[in-house]
Structures are given as structure tokens and as C-alpha cells.
């Protein structure tokens, strides 16, 4: 099961990288090229959504003890998908603003520079947020693994204590039987 999930994960990573690259190109293109790129990105976003659905189905098939780690990964992928869709929406807005400026003959270089600067800052913030979220996910997964290990150690300790108690009882019984046998031999 997890190998299918990991295969979907790899496909999702490749697809999101392609989408990110294409989203960055949308504002720089013109005319039919831009329309074609927008259509391609929309198709790829749909493919990415379908991959997420497949990954969710795979997570449901994974045993409960392993499911937590995969579920947290899924949350991370869904957040990444939401950010891609927001980025695409922003690039389309930039695209429609450019068309409006072309139609109205508005130069807007200073506003475009400001917009580019704001987009760069937004992108940096989003990258930082993604890094923080990835770090948080790793911390959550580590905590879950640690909790599972502590539970396993607790169970093992109980087993060892029960075995030690049985050993003491057996030792006491052996001592009694030894004394009885010694007494029988004397008689």
C-alpha cells in the first residue's frame, strides 16, 4: 500500500513543480501563448487534485498504526495544493490586469514594479510558511513516533515484570519441591 502512496507522492511532487514553473511564466506571456499556458495549468491542477484523491484512498487502506504519519503528509499536500491554486489565481489576476492596461493604454510601470515587489515578498513569505509547516509536520511525526515507542516500551516493561514474577514463583515452587524431596529421601 505505502509503495503506491509513495509513487503518487512522487508524481504529485513532479506535477506541482511543473505547475509552479508554469504559473511563474503566465504573467510574462502574451496572447494565445498565455491562454494556452492558463489552460495547461488548469489541466495540471485538475490532475494534481485527482492525485490527491488517489493518495487519500491509499491512506484509508494503510493500517492504523502507520496512518497518522501519512495523514499529516496529506494535510501538508492539501495545503500546498491550496497555495498553488492561490498562486495561479494571482497570476491570472495579473494577466487580466495586463489585458486591462493594454486595452486602456495605461502604462503603469511604477505600479507594476510595486506589484512585482509585493509578489516577490508574498512568495518569500509563502516559502517561509511552507518551511515552518514542514518543520511543524516533522515535529508532529517525531512526537507520534516517540509516543508509539514509549507505549511499546511500557508494554515490554509489563511483560518483563510478569515474566520476572513468574520466575520468582517458579523458584519458590522449586525450593519447596526440593525441601519435600529432601524430606522424603531422609524418611
Write a structural description.
By secondary structure, this protein is mainly α. It has a domain at 3-105: Up-down Bundle (Methane Monooxygenase Hydroxylase, Chain G, domain 1), CATH 1.20.58.400. Helix content is 93%, strand content 0%. The protein is built from 4 helices and no strands. The longest helix has 78 residues, at 109-186. It is rod-shaped and about 115 Å long. The N and C termini lie far apart (70 Å).
Task: Write a concise synopsis of the structure shown.
The chain has 187 residues and is mainly alpha-helical. Helices cover 93% and strands 0% of the residues.
Q: Helix-strand pattern, N to C?
A: HHHH
Give Rg in angstroms: 31 Å
Structural class, from helix and strand content? mainly alpha
Main sheet attributes: strand count, strand direction, barrel closure: none
Q: What is the count of DSSP helices, taking H or I runs of 4+ residues?
A: 4
GO molecular function, one term: SNAP receptor activity
Subcellular location: Endomembrane system; Golgi apparatus membrane
Keywords: Coiled coil, Golgi apparatus, Membrane, Protein transport, Transmembrane, Transmembrane helix, Transport
Family: Belongs to the VTI1 family.
Amino acid at each position: 500500500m505505502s509503495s503506491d502512496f509513495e509513487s503518487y507522492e512522487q508524481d504529485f511532487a513532479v506535477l506541482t513543480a511543473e505547475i509552479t514553473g508554469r504559473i511563474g511564466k503566465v504573467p510574462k506571456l502574451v496572447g494565445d501563448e498565455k491562454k494556452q499556458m492558463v489552460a495547461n495549468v488548469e489541466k495540471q491542477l485538475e490532475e494534481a487534485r485527482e492525485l490527491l484523491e488517489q493518495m487519500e484512498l491509499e491512506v484509508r487502506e494503510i493500517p492504523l498504526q502507520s496512518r497518522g504519519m501519512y495523514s499529516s503528509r496529506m494535510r501538508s499536500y492539501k495545503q500546498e495544493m491550496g497555495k498553488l491554486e492561490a498562486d495561479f489565481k494571482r497570476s491570472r489576476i495579473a494577466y487580466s490586469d495586463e489585458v486591462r492596461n493594454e486595452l486602456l493604454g495605461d502604462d503603469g510601470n511604477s505600479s507594476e514594479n510595486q506589484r512585482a515587489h509585493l509578489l516577490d515578498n508574498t512568495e518569500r513569505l509563502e516559502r517561509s510558511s511552507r518551511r515552518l509547516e514542514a518543520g511543524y509536520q516533522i515535529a508532529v511525526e517525531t512526537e507520534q513516533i516517540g509516543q508509539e515507542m514509549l507505549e511499546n516500551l511500557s508494554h515490554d516493561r509489563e511483560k518483563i515484570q510478569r515474566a520476572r514474577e513468574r520466575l520468582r514463583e517458579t523458584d519458590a515452587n522449586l525450593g519447596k519441591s526440593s525441601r519435600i524431596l529432601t524430606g522424603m529421601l531422609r524418611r
